[in-house]
Each structure stands twice: as structure tokens, then as C-alpha cells.
Amino acid sequence: MRSRVVLVNLLDASLCGWYSQSHRLCQICRVRCHGKEEKELRENSKFEMARNIDTRKLQLMRISFDDILAFKVQRSTMTTMKMLTCFLLSLLIFSCVSSVSTMTDTATGISFPAITNGLECFGVGVRKKGPIKIYSVAMYSDFKEKLASMSRSAEKGKKALKTLRDGAQESPTSFMLEMSFKVGSEKMASAIADAVAPRYTGSSSDVDSLKGLIMSGVASKGAAVKGTTLQFDCSSSGVDVAVDGQAQGGVPSPKLAKAFCDVYLDDKCASPALRESCLENCCEP
Questions:
Q1: For residue 113, how many other CB atoms are within 10 A of its CB?
Q2: What is the per-residue pLDDT across 265-276, written as a single tens digit (0 to 9) for each?
Q3: Sign of the four-CA dihedral 27, 30, 36, 39
Q4: CA distances from 155 to 17, 134, 158 (A)
Q5: 120: how many CB neighbours lie within 10 A of its CB?
Q6: pLDDT (tens digit, 9 = 90+) per residue, 57-69?
């Protein structure tokens, strides 16, 4: 009986020891598990915080990028508007300056400078041969004040036309021609000489000299092609000829200069449009 009690006590002690040891193991495991959970929680919290921070950074980056993009678009638009405004202003200024500094023949679209050799452009016109527009011509001189107070419609314009013709013969006057149709050098020189000859009462050799100057200037190009310019400066010294701005020489005959003016200003002129343009630009209505 006693041995049975001892055995029971030993068994209880063993069980208690085992229980205690197991309890301690459980506590250790629980602590370890709890610590692991806490560690995982801490890591998860750090991850969540990092993710939240990264999300905020992304949001900030997105906001910053959108703001920068919007600013760049706005700045680009403002720059474009400024450039467009400057371009339009430049175009307006250029058109105003061009309209003042040139005079255009509407029949051919050829423009002439407003001033050449110190002389003002009075008007422009076209020389036609049938339906063909051969060239445009501009007249330059320095007696506009004589026409400024005159009416171009009074007496059917006869008084204004007479003043225009007399003023051209008495003052330094230039005629600038620009070709709009190709013409051979000999044919071009002959056409001008043939227009001068019946209006000139001097020696025919002067007309031939004029023809030779025109021909020599144009012949170097082969022909009076489109864009070729011929300038005739008429004064009390005679007629000086230039082709494409290159002086060819002159004919020292004041009468020849007057006859040349009549080619474009008398009643049988080569370009009625030139006379009309001169009166329109220089006279009162």
C-alpha cells in the first residue's frame, strides 16, 4: 500500500514536472510566437508606412509633374502668342512700309521703288501690244507741286496732262521699264527707236545712237527677258541709258530727251495707263 502511494506521488511529481516544463515551453513558444507576430506587425507597419509615404510621393510627383506640364503648356502658349503677335505686327509694318516705298502696276504685278536718283515716282502703267503685256513703265521727276492743286477731271484732264508733259520736258525725268514678256534685243531697241524717231526733229544719227545703246545693253543677256530693266534718264544734257542698273552711255541731245518724254506722255503715247496713273497720284480729283 505504501509503495503504491509512493508510486502515485512520484507519478504526480513527474506529471507536475512535465506540466510545468511543458507550460514553460508553451510560454516560451508563446513569447516567441508573439515576438514573431510583433516583428511581423512591425515590418508590416513599416511596409504600410513606406507604401503610404511612396504613395504620397507619387501623388506629389504626379501633382508636380502635372503642374510643370501645365506651366510648360501655358508658357509655350504664351510664347506662341507673343511670336504670332510679333509676326503680325512685323507683317503690318512691312506692308505699310512696302506700300509707301513701292508703286505697283496692277496689270502686271511689277513694283517700282517710290524714289530713284532723288526723283519721286509719279505713276506706273503697262505697255501692251494687242493682248500681250510687254512691259511696265514708271515715271520719275521732281515737279509734283505743279500738279498737286490741279484737278485731273477739269477740262477732261487736258490742263493737267499739258502740265505733266511740259513739266517732264523741263525737269529731270526718268522712265524705268521692266519687262514682263521676252523680247529680242534688236526688236526691243528698234521698237523704242521707232517710237522716238517721228517725235524727234534732230539728226537721225541721235536716234541710231540711242538704239545702239539699248541693243548693246540687252544683247549681253541675249534678249530682254522677263525682269530685265531699262532706265532712260532725260534731262537738258540728253538721254542716258542703263540696262539692269548698268550704265550704257548717253546721247547728248536735249531735243532727244524731250522726244523721249513724248513717247509716254503725248496723246499717242505708248502707255495711256501711265498718264492716267500720274494724274491720279499727283492731282486732285
A1: 12
A2: 999 999 999 999
A3: negative
A4: 148, 32, 6
A5: 16
A6: 545 445 454 555 5
